[in-house]
Specification:
The protein is α/β, with parallel strands linked by helices. It folds into 3 domains: 267 residues, Spore Coat Polysaccharide Biosynthesis Protein SpsA, Chain A (Alpha-Beta Complex), CATH 3.90.550; 71 residues, no CATH class; 93 residues, Jelly Rolls (Sandwich). 22% of the residues lie in helices and 33% in strands. The chain has 11 helices and 29 strands. The strands form 6 sheets. The chain has a 6-stranded antiparallel beta sheet with strand order 20-21-22-29-24-27, with no helix packed on it. Helix 3 packs across helix 6, helix 3 crosses helix 7 and helix 6 crosses helix 7.
Length: 481
């Protein structure tokens, strides 16, 4: 039987799910609940049966370490294609099609958003649609709508596709209609939510790009030809990839091709595009509330409360959403949850850091979090996994004092090698390189206090803040690796 290649799209940011989703740590890499499996990991695991081959992951280049780490956690190997710039789903899927066609001219792709929640088994629908796809059709999977959602796209059923059991004609697409139009579509019947999941042959997509947008095909081919080869895949060449059309596969190809078909899938689906969706899909208590973390709810109904690292008490409120993170708290009504995107736009106008990163960052060696920071200083907590190693490479204007709070540390520098227990301290002075390792069997916790000192060349204070950037190691004041 033909093996289907799951192609997982990880390029989005999910601004409507702020403060959970950030530019450097977007929604798909966050846990579905307060902890545990992420959206991306759940998507990979959902398509790991015998019907499927090795997954292909399409991801922004800056998130390559995150994808690699999360794949390792679920013990899954994948081919990773790094996108040097964001060009929407169209060029990304085309790059995957070109790569897979080179491996197998008969390759079949299953395009999968990485940030959706599915309850039920999608495999029977995929298997049933395969014969139509092998004959050259493009099949997209529709979901029977449960309510008139204006935040989703719709596909209109055009009647049966003769010769293929269960496959329907896709008469037209309706992109995120107003609420009254969505309601009318559902009342008329034959309208399905567009799940964003589609099945097609690699050569079919390539041929349609050649016919409809040939310049994008040439640009992506060039980006692939000049791609940087890595241990886990390739990184497309930036200049060529930037010349491709910045648009989705749906608007570029699916809405213009004569090969489009629809397959109604019998699953519960949600794209979790706004916080109200977490309430919809969550397990509710007797008052209709969905909560996680350290939460107390009193005289509160039909609400979603996602706790962080502190106790949250909600009293006498209905239909609200509360989301707590270490550096930001969101409170909104369920009906206004789509407007969170406007908050992100306001934060961007004032260059607020809360839209970029979380205060806690995950790394290959563990995680690091900011406890406090201000003019000329920062206090951070480092948690190293057993065997984890961190490189400190301080600037000429930085001095750090580190204290072991838990575990056993080893420090190597020009001064030699030391093993340190709980309560021991060590200093990393200006222009000093030091390697910190966890040589114990449990997590190592270290508190780092970093201060800026005046440069010998100037009385101007140096830029403040610690050295850590989990996505781009060692930008200004030091380096963790």
């Amino acid at each position: 039987m033909t093996q289907i290649n799951p192609v997982i799209l990880c390029g989005g940011v999910g601004t409507r799910l702020w403060p959970l989703s950030r530019q450097h740590q977007p929604k798909q890499f966050q846990p579905i609940n307060s902890e545990g499996t992420t959206f991306f990991q759940a998507t990979v695991q959902r398509h790991g049966g015998r019907l499927f081959g090795k997954p292909v992951v399409l991801v922004n280049e800056r998130h390559l370490p995150t994808v690699t780490r999360q794949l390792r956690t679920i013990m899954t190997d994948a081919m990773i294609i790094g996108e040097p710039v964001s060009r929407n789903t169209g060029p990304a899927l085309l790059a995957a099609a070109l790569y897979l066609y080179e491996q197998d001219p008969d390759a079949v792709l299953l395009a999968l958003p990485s940030d959706h929640v599915i309850d039920g088994n999608l495999e029977p629908s995929i298997a049933s649609a395969l014969s139509a796809v092998q004959d050259g059709l493009i099949v997209t999977f529709g979901i029977a709508p449960r309510y008139p959602e204006s935040g989703y796209g719709y596909i209109i059923d055009g009647g049966p596709y003769i010769g293929y059991d269960g496959v329907r004609k896709a008469a037209r697409f309706v992109e995120k209609p107003a609420a009254e139009i969505a309601e009318a579509l559902i009342e008329e019947g034959g309208a399905f939510w567009a799940s964003g999941i589609s099945l097609f042959r690699a050569d079919t997509l390539i041929a349609e790009y050649s016919r409809i947008v040939p310049k994008t095909l040439l640009a992506v081919k060039e980006a692939k030809r000049l791609a940087e080869v890595t241990a886990s895949g390739i990184i497309l060449e930036a200049e060529a990839f930037s010349r491709s059309r910045n648009d989705s596969t749906e608007s570029t190809i699916f809405e213009k091709t004569d090969l489009m078909a629809l397959f109604p899938a019998d699953v519960q689906w949600d794209d979790v595009g706004a916080w109200s969706a977490f309430h919809t899909i969550g397990a509710k208590d007797d008052s209709g509330n969905v909560s996680s973390g350290d939460v107390i709810l009193l005289d509160t109904q039909n609400s979603y409360v996602r706790g962080g690292n502190k106790l949250i008490a909600v009293v006498g409120l209905n239909d609200v959403i509360v989301v707590d993170t270490p550096d930001a708290l969101l409170v909104t009504s369920r009906s206004a949850s789509q407007k969170v995107k406007k908050v992100v736009e306001m934060l961007a106008q004032t260059s607020r850091p809360e839209i970029i990163d979380h205060r806690w960052l995950n790394t290959d060696w563990g995680r690091v979090g900011t406890i406090s920071e201000g003019g000329g200083y920062s206090i951070k907590q480092l948690v190293l996994n057993a065997g984890g190693t961190v490189l400190f490479d301080s600037s000429s204007t930085q001095r750090s004092l580190l204290t072991v709070a838990e575990g056993v540390a080893q420090v190597e520098s020009e001064a030699g090698r030391r093993v340190l227990g709980v309560g021991a301290t060590f200093e990393v002075g200006p222009q000093v390189r030091a390697i910190l390792s966890n040589v114990g069997t449990t997590a190592l916790q270290v508190i780092e206090v970093t201060c800026e000192i005046e440069s010998r060349e100037t009385t101007e204070p140096a830029q403040t803040g610690a050295a850590f950037d989990a996505m781009a190691v060692g930008k200004k004041l030091g380096q963790y690796a």
